[in-house]
Design a protein that fits this description.
By secondary structure, the chain is α/β, with parallel strands linked by helices. Helix content is 34%, strand content 26%. Strands 1, 2, 3, 4, 5, 6, 7, 8, 9, 10, 11 and 12 form a twelve-stranded mixed beta sheet that branches.
Length: 254
Amino acid sequence: MAPVKIMPCLDMKDGRVVKGINFVNLRDAGDPVEHAAVYQQEGADELAMLDIAATVENRSTRLEWVRKVAAAIQIPLTVGGGIGSIEDIEQVLAAGAAKVSINTAAVRNPQLIDEAARRFGSGTITVAIDGKRSQSVTSGFELVVAGGTTPTGKDAIAWARECEQRGAGILLPTSMDGDGTRAGYDIPFTRAIADAVRIPVVASGGAGTLEHFLEAVTQGHAQILLAASVFHFRTLSIRQVKEHLARSGVEVVI
């Protein structure tokens, strides 16, 4: 198995990094370029940048944000938010991103995954899967879209399998029940998706302690660990997380 990766996430709105709880109550968390440079210096393996308002505001990702952040780092940058077409993907990659994350557009038009994977390679295409607990679907996890505002009635685990079959290279599930709470990753949700597919899965939403990161690997079966609040507000450093994982027997690149 490949070393576990640490991926800080810049949630973007109006050119600034923001952070909320359960996708709402946003507060300013600083300048994206400054954060990106710090995270690379601390040993981040990759960086994510999500334009959290793009889909809700029915617009594409702000490319100037992508250019500025990509120019400040050498590690791979995954960009998501408002990416709805092959043209959008081309523009984001041309602006300096190494990978894109698609979500709502893929749910509305699943063939976008097939076409994007063929055109740009599976390793370039991450599908973000936002889910929340619901008794209305078989797995107990319902797929939600549009920044967590719209339930779809689809089973999130079945959708994860479909994404893999269509050519997605990475899945990024986020539990709306855990986002920004620092109460720990939603381990049952993460594990349900990780165990349903063979491609790498990103644990996302809720990291607050060193132990949470370890649980995401040992119990959630994630291969990439994404976090925002704990890094933005310097509660934990990436080096601290990696050293804790290494001491616990998890392979990381320090």
